[in-house]
Write a structure and sequence with these properties.
The chain is of the alpha+beta class. The chain contains two helices and five strands.
Length: 99
Amino acid sequence: MERIELHFPAGEALPAQALAGVVGSGDLEVLYQPSADKSLQVTVTSSVDGGRQRWQHLFERVGAAHALPAGRLEINDFGATPGVARLRIEQVFEEAEHV
């Protein structure tokens, strides 16, 4: 079990909190809470050790495609692939934007 904390510069916060995904075999859940501090604080709790660099790169790719929103992300990972992780992150941002 590993706990990873990452921080990224961010734009405006999204208007609502949101949840995407379910922790289970090969999946993860992502919880977003808006914040006004102009950064995105990410906490990943993962069943897979040694994933800090993978998560760092994943958020760099997401941030290159879209501005990251200010707030906090709590990610509970149970061995999701990078593709599933990115999908859930983008889903939670979309949900928080359109609530």
